[in-house]
Amino acid sequence: MRAGGRPSRRVLPLLLILSACASSGGGSEPGAGLDAGALALRRAEFEAARERLVSVRRLCGEARLGRQALLLLSALELDPRNPGGDPGLAAAYAASYLARPETFPWTRPVAEQLYLQALRLGGEPVAESATPMEVVVSREGAPEVCERSDWEVTAGGDLPVLGRGARSSRSGGGSPPGDESRRLRNRIAELEAELDRIRATLRP
Predict the structure, then answer these.
(1) What is the DSSP string of 10-35?
(2) 58-68 burial code (b ≥16 CB/10 A, e <16)
(3) Whose CA is closest to 135, among 83, 95, 182?
(4) pTM of the predicted structure, to 2 decimals
(5) In the chain, which ranges are continuous DSSP H helix?
(6) Which of 12, 175, 182, 192 yields a CA-CA distance of 20 to 30 A from 56?
(7) Dist CA 10 CA 130 (whole Å)
């Protein structure tokens, strides 16, 4: 059951974690691309973010920066501010990430939450070997700069704002949270009335 508003409260903290972890100031081309993609995502510039992150993924493949780009791409598709977000793609990106072991254990639960949120919002379960075609990479070795690990500490920032036009669900517009709550209350009342009727027929 998708209650309006809940996905944004759960997904936005993940976006903050991911963008903060990818926003260091590395000078290498893939590192700068990842940083630029993360910054564009924080600014809700989704097309620019996608372009940068897909480029890093294609260049770096399964190296560290390429896999971090996968996480950010999954977050991009789940961002409730993104009118073109696709939970199916989000699930596929997260599944591709989870298909391989990870050096940093903390990233796996983040990827799992992204995957589960994608399923909750309508994405289909993904085979572990499935990878979206736009981020399919060659098996050749990635450049050494794709293994960057010299993260810099960055200053904190304001929380993102969920605009009035953001969707409350991925099913095509969705309903306002108040409407959904009213429907649920009405349905519960109907079920309770039906139970009362059944109990009355069973009394001796």
Answers:
(1) HHHHHHHHHHHHT-----SHHHHHHH
(2) bbbbbbbbbbb
(3) 95
(4) 0.63
(5) 6-21, 29-42, 46-60, 64-78, 87-98, 107-120, 177-202
(6) 12
(7) 25
